[in-house]
Structures are given as C-alpha cells and as structure tokens.
Amino acid sequence: MSLLNTLNDDMKTAMKAKDKETLTVIRMLKASLQNEKIKIGRDLNDEEELTILAREMKQRRDSLTEFEKAGREDLVEKVKSEITIVEQYLPEQLTLEEIHSIVAQAIEKTGASSVKEFGKVMGVVMPQVKGKADGNQVNAVVKERLDK
Q1: At 76, is the pLDDT very low, low, confident or very high (cuts 50, 70, 90)?
Q2: What is the pLDDT of residues 106-120, one digit of tens each?
Q3: Which tens digit of pLDDT belongs to each residue from 20-49?
Q4: Which of 46, 57, 62, 112 sits CB 3.0–4.6 Å from 117 for a disulfide?
Q5: Where are the domains of the chain?
Q6: What is the DSSP secondary structure assignment for residue 18, as one 8-state letter?
C-alpha cells in the first residue's frame, strides 16, 4: 500500500474521530506528496516518499528549536504533537549506537582521518540513514568521530 493510500485512510479515520490536529498534519503531508508528484510528473517511489517525509520532519524539528529559543510554549506543544503524528509514517528510527556503527564503517570505507573529509563521510552515511535518523544527529556523530 502506498503512502498516499495510507494517508487517505488515516485522513478518513481522523475525520470520523473529529481529530482536527491529526487531520491537518495528514493534509499537509498529503499536499507535499502530491505537489512533488505534480512537479516530477509521475508517481513517487518509496524512496522519494521517504525523502519528502524526512523533509517535513526536519521542518518541524527546526520550527521546534526556533520556538523553544523564542519561549513560545504554545507553539512548542503544537509542533511536538505534529512531530509525533509525522513519526508514525517514517520508518523506525536508528539508535545512537547504530548511527555510530554506520559512521565508523563509512570512515573506514572512505579512509577519512580529519574533519576536512567530513563531506566524503557524510556522502556515504546519509543514503544509508535517510529517513531513519535526524541529519543533525548524524552530523554531530561524524564530527565527533573525525575529531578523535
């Protein structure tokens, strides 16, 4: 079942339950997917859908950080609940240990030994963790490993 079908089913469920918040988030996700589908002119494959979901999650995490800095608790709670809803459609997230393992393998594979080779390592790591880990977290792990 495609993500779009899943979103449609969940949208119907949210409508019946009168869950406005979930309905709003699902509509935003669905709109993003449909806009991308129109933009590229064909149905999206699983990887493209995952990329769009990851982008939506990143936007919400960035918003959360900004709202926390600004002390906007009313918006912080709203964004946290949106993140919870979006997480339901993403694959299970990697643990920190799993990220460290993937980064270690990438460093070994690329032969990177300094922070100057950060981009090389990230180029190997990111396709493996796409949608399964927060990019900022991966970034921090790679920097930490290359600083040693």
Answers
A1: very high
A2: 888 888 777 788 888
A3: 999 999 999 999 999 999 999 998 888 888
A4: 112
A5: 3-87, 96-147
A6: T
Report the topology of domain 96-147.
Arc Repressor Mutant, subunit A (1.10.10)
Query: What are the CA-CA distances from residue 78 to residues 12, 21, 70, 74, 122 (Å)?
Result: 22, 9, 15, 7, 32
Identify the CA nearest to 48 among candidates 37, 58, 57, 59: 37
Q: DSSP class of residue 35?
A: H
CATH level 3 topology of 3-87: Hypothetical Protein Yqey; Chain: A; domain1 (1.10.1510)
For 123, the token pair is 């180029």
Q: How far is Cα 6 from Cα 126, in angstroms, rounded to an integer?
A: 26
Q: Residues with Cβ < 8 Å from 7, sequence gap 6 or more?
A: 26, 29, 30, 33, 89
Residue 95: DSSP 8-state: P
CB atoms within 10 A of CB 31: 11
Q: 143, 103 in Cβ contact below 8 A?
A: no
